[in-house]
Design a protein that fits this description.
With 327 residues, the protein is an alpha+beta fold. It has helices at 9-15, 68-80, 113-118, 124-140, 155-172, 177-188, 224-242, 246-263, 269-288, 298-312; strands at residues 25-29, 35-41, 46-52, 91-95, 100-103, 111-112, 194-195, 204-207, 210-213, 220-221. Helix 5 packs antiparallel against helix 6 (177-188), helix 5 (155-172) crosses helix 9 (269-288) and helix 7 crosses helix 9 (269-288).
């Protein structure tokens, strides 16, 4: 595997006939902790190139097979067939040997929704758009199972979510291990529902035409309630960050759930308990586990821990008894 950088990328693209002219403009983009991402511009092309990292860029050891980038390319192809094109990039080509994919660029200017939320802008239309995208994935995914059997493989999801979030957390908090392990088991069961695995505000880009979903490495057929729990955990963290404005962010939670239920209609009472459990796992992981947020103060982190622990003790059974729902 050739690790790409700004120095060797032009030669890689030209020698592999991915661009017709040498000396493209190369702009590094934020790829989170799991990938190298570049914007490539030539006289006749403009696209995004992404290469998966083996060691994620975090303090702790967190390894994952870079072949997961093929999972992302498959999801792009699958999702492209079931959702409006404005909701995702179009897959262009992939290089399995070097674990690289290329895709179209989101409409400029594009900003992660996370940035807007941290600037204390709480727009419920954004939450409704996010719910529409996630409902489309969950609702129509079963029809794609036959055409994309590779997405039945949960290896990458296990490396990037189950092991660092669920297994490590169960070891660190043995008092909640029974609940965490039950949730973990549900993630490994076979399911016809297409799941994203990393559906969060940082992966939803805002632009003049709406919203585009990115970063699909953990896509798989699995338990849709984890997608919901993970996303809602991020909204709860933003509620805590907003302090005196938390009621505005709580409205985002209510708007998201209402729009999701309206579009998907599969979040029944039993599913609520599962969603709340996954929410607790992600919440605790983000303040005390492998993947920690960097925007909360200690008091806010402690409030998140207490809420997560209440969820994992199963003291909260539905949205009406979930404190952030009514803040």
């Amino acid at each position: 595997m050739l690790e790409l950088n700004s120095s060797n990328l032009a030669e890689y693209l030209f020698s592999n006939h991915r661009i017709l002219l040498p000396n493209p403009t190369i702009e590094p983009l934020s790829g989170g902790v799991s990938a190298l991402v570049f914007k490539i511009t030539t006289q006749d092309q403009c696209f995004v190139l992404k290469q998966a990292c083996k060691q994620l860029r975090v303090k702790e050891v967190w390894l994952s097979d870079p072949a997961r980038i093929e999972q992302e390319f498959l999801f792009l192809r699958a999702f492209h067939s079931l959702a409006p094109r404005r909701y995702l990039a179009e897959p262009l080509w992939h290089d399995n040997k070097n674990h690289v994919i290329a895709m179209t660029l989101a409409t400029a200017p594009a900003t992660p929704w996370k940035t807007e939320l941290l600037n204390l802008i709480a727009d419920r239309v954004r939450a409704e758009q996010a719910a529409t995208i996630l409902a489309a994935i969950h609702n129509k995914g079963p029809s794609l199972k036959k055409d994309f059997p590779e997405l039945l493989d949960k290896t990458i999801f296990q490396q990037l979510r189950i092991e660092p979030f669920y297994e490590r957390l169960a070891q660190k908090y043995p008092e909640y291990s029974t609940r965490i392990n039950a949730l973990r088991k549900s993630l490994l069961e076979e399911s016809p529902t297409l799941c994203h695995g990393d559906f969060s505000p940082k992966n939803l880009l805002l632009h003049p035409n709406g919203m585009t979903l990115v970063d699909h490495e953990t896509a798989h057929f699995g338990d849709y309630t984890m997608d919901l729990g993970l996303f809602l955990a991020h909204l709860v963290l933003k509620c805590l960050y907003a302090k005196s404005n938390r009621s505005l962010y709580a409205e985002l939670i209510r708007s998201f759930l209402k729009a999701y239920q309206s579009n998907a209609g599969i979040c029944d009472l039993n599913a609520q308990e599962s969603v709340l459990g996954h929410l607790g796992v992600v919440l605790l992981t983000r303040v005390s586990g492998t993947s920690r947020v960097d925007y909360l103060d200690e008091a806010q982190k402690q409030e998140a821990r207490m809420l997560a622990q209440t969820l994992l003790k199963e003291d909260i059974k539905n949205w009406e008894s979930f404190p952030p729902y009514s803040w």
